[in-house]
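Possible regression after last week's pipeline update?

I re-ran a chain I had predicted before the update to compare outputs. Posting the input and the new output here so someone can diff against the archived version. Not blocking, just want to make sure nothing changed silently.
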Amino acid sequence: MTRRTSVILAHGYNDAGEGKGNVDLLIPSIEGLGLKPVEVNYGLTMRLGVRLCNKRMSSALSKLVPKGSIGIGHSNGATLLWLAANYGASFKRLILVNPALDSNVSIPKQLERVDVFYDPKDPWPSLARFIPFSPWGAMGTRGYNGPDKRVFNHKHHYGHSGLFRCQPDRIIQLI
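New output (post-update):
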């Protein structure tokens, strides 16, 4: 029996639906590819909650990620997956949609590829860059601006969560 690749899905922080309006919309397509979707649900966590808990949640997640997994994160969910990869999570790839990350973060060495979907008109990641002492930044608005050749930018115009509803196949085709 072959082991199915896990696709780890992480939603943003201000999401009472725990991804129902964004990353969870990908589940039927992921299952249709024969892959195993795994949701990282951390509830409706407001700004203070993520500031206090992101590192602890990411550290715990890093120990649970099956080897060779693909991570798909939205907004702060992208930050969680990136932090988990920095703690040594066995991700093969990350797909970051409107990530709340600095535009020039370092890419963990175990990652083969990172895809970044960004919308220049999305105000939320731009505002995140003003939060001091955090990895949050404007990558979701600007794309990745660092030197790493494993990162590929994909511009879109669907707002902060609209890509999941309007063109989910753009994400799925990268798995």
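Follow-up from reviewer: compared with the archived run. The chain has a mean pLDDT of 86. Marking as no regression found.
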